[in-house]
Design goal:
Beta-lactamase; five-stranded antiparallel sheet; 10 helices
Length: about 425
């Protein structure tokens, strides 16, 4: 009898403690002077008990910013193998005809493996580039047109080269460009705000202000891509002749040169929130699935086959999160995280795709460590007025959670928003 009474008291105490924890969590949200100045939503899911345990506006729709890349991660895991196809080709007589696959890594400053370059430079065959027909524009719906100057928004193309950006840097007082071809496209113009390089809006010419170039100066600017420029840059880089073969459709049987580890490229996209990689990986998936570059069709395919079962409809217009048109709910992000757990059964391998608190990527300066290790792994998302995190958390007691924390329409207080999120997520870590 005493044992039974003790058990009942123990469970009553545990239930009371848990209720107090939820009450405190609710107070952290409802009494926050930071969060209640804008629109926010939150969802917490217990991975061990397979159930939602807490939510605030978890069914409302938010602009997710770069949390959108979680959809691109899932799509890539479903469609790409261990390696990314860098180039498709056939040999016909004395000629090698090749097509792009959308691979973003060719001559990319950080990711180029050299395999595609070596293949093209060493082949004994005459080279012919057959550009694919791409019906979509180089930008996605909902992107800011004025961001054409910024390296986070390069053109999206069927065969990227140099990351579709030109890198300018100060080398012993001289302005050098990679690719070198662009050095002749720079003119000096008077400036009113210090040294800068500005691209013309509708052509590949750049103005360099007349101020003295700072030591160590380096910047990247997107260039306007077209198939003729691609061939010129490739000729200049390979130091050999390449002919443009327009209108030559790719046959069903081709060979591939694989360029890079899929995991390496996905980690770069996720850890550092690379928009260019996200959009181009979407194109690689479309190329492999439909033999065409059609991002809209690819998004439709993913929605029909994977996302229609979500409890709330999502609306995506790009693969990177630059579009303000994208709309998701915190609960739909949880459902996506559960799909990712199904796609990558090894938990440590899955967490390796995510920035880790105080350890890596866009979370390296946020949160603290628990016994020398991170306790939170999340994809961040940031555009004007938007900050979000969606990912996984391990509590001090060892319980595992998925979460999505979204903030929209905040003004001039990103640091405070981040601080409030850290406070709440750290509370969950210590008390749940």
């Amino acid at each position: 009898m005493k044992r039974r009474i003790f058990s009942l008291l123990f469970f009553a105490f545990a239930f009371s403690t848990e209720a107090q924890q939820f009450d405190t969590l609710s107070s952290l949200f409802s009494q926050s002077s930071v969060l209640n100045r804008h629109f926010y939503g939150f969802s917490l899911y217990d991975l061990d008990e397979n159930k939602y345990v807490y939510g605030v506006r978890d069914e409302a729709r938010f602009t997710p910013a770069s949390n959108t890349k979680l959809f691109t991660l899932f799509q890539s895991l479903k469609h790409l193998g261990d390696s990314i196809p860098g180039l498709a080709y056939i040999v016909k007589g004395d000629s090698l005809i090749f097509w792009g696959t959308g691979d973003p890594t060719f001559l990319h400053r950080k990711l180029d493996s050299g395999k595609v370059f070596k293949f093209l430079s060493k082949t004994r065959y005459k080279l012919y580039y057959a550009p694919a027909q791409v019906l979509e524009t180089a930008y996605r719906n909902g992107w800011a047109a004025e961001d054409y100057q910024n390296d986070f928004q390069p053109d999206i193309t069927s065969f990227p080269i140099y990351g579709n950006t030109v890198r300018f840097r100060n080398v012993r007082g001289n302005l050098l460009a990679i690719p070198k071809w662009f050095e002749t496209k720079v003119s000096v113009k008077p400036g009113i705000a210090g040294f800068d390089i500005i691209r013309h809006a509708h052509e590949n010419y750049f103005d360099m202000t007349s101020y003295r170039m700072p030591a160590g100066f380096s910047t990247e600017k997107p260039f306007i891509y077209n198939e003729h420029l691609f061939v010129e840059l490739l000729r200049d880089t390979l130091k050999r002749e390449i002919e443009l073969l327009s209108g030559y459709s790719m046959p069903s049987q081709v060979r591939y040169i694989y360029s890079n580890s899929t995991r390496n490229v996905l980690r770069e996209m996720m850890l550092y929130s690379d928009n260019f990689l996200a959009e181009q990986l979407n194109y690689v998936c479309s190329f492999l699935q439909f033999n065409q570059f059609n991002a809209l069709k690819m998004r439709g395919y993913m929605n029909e086959n994977f996302y229609q079962s979500f409890s709330h409809k999502i609306d995506l217009h790009d693969a990177s999160g630059l579009s303000f048109y994208n709309k998701v709910t915190p609960n739909s992000m949880i459902e996506l995280l559960l799909l990712l757990r199904g796609a990558v059964r090894d938990e440590q391998m899955l967490l390796g795709y995510f920035p880790a608190g105080r350890s890596s990527g866009t979370l390296r300066n946020m949160y603290t460590l628990h016994k020398g290790k991170p306790f939170i792994w999340a994809k961040t998302g940031t555009i004007s007025g938007v900050y979000a995190q969606s990912g996984f958390l391990t509590s001090a007691s060892g319980k595992r959670y998925a979460f999505s924390f979204m903030n929209n329409n905040h003004v001039d207080n990103l640091k405070a928003v981040k601080g409030e999120m850290v406070k709440i997520m750290t509370f969950i870590h210590h008390n749940f």
